[in-house]
Amino acid sequence: MGLFDVGGLSAINPTLQLASPLFDRIEIQLNKNYYKGDKFVINVENNAANNMYLESISLNGNSQNSIAIPFSAIVDGGNVALKLSDKPNNNLVL
User: What is the DSSP letter of 18?
Assistant: First the structure.
């Protein structure tokens, strides 16, 4: 999926770090008994074996330069758009 948290979601306000997913589109159905959102969607552009680096990230239509997104942004529902490249983007930070 390209989402992981090195802290195991143990922080008070956890974040998930992004990496290149295996799939072009991933839809996570959220359980309404626990979360506000209906679903969280990950869309990937330029997904190929040689494109392992994140070139750009857009969370709910807003461009961002961080590879970390708040867990709350996922469980509230929404989407992240990732563009992949064969070269690292040194402007993306944790």
Answer: E
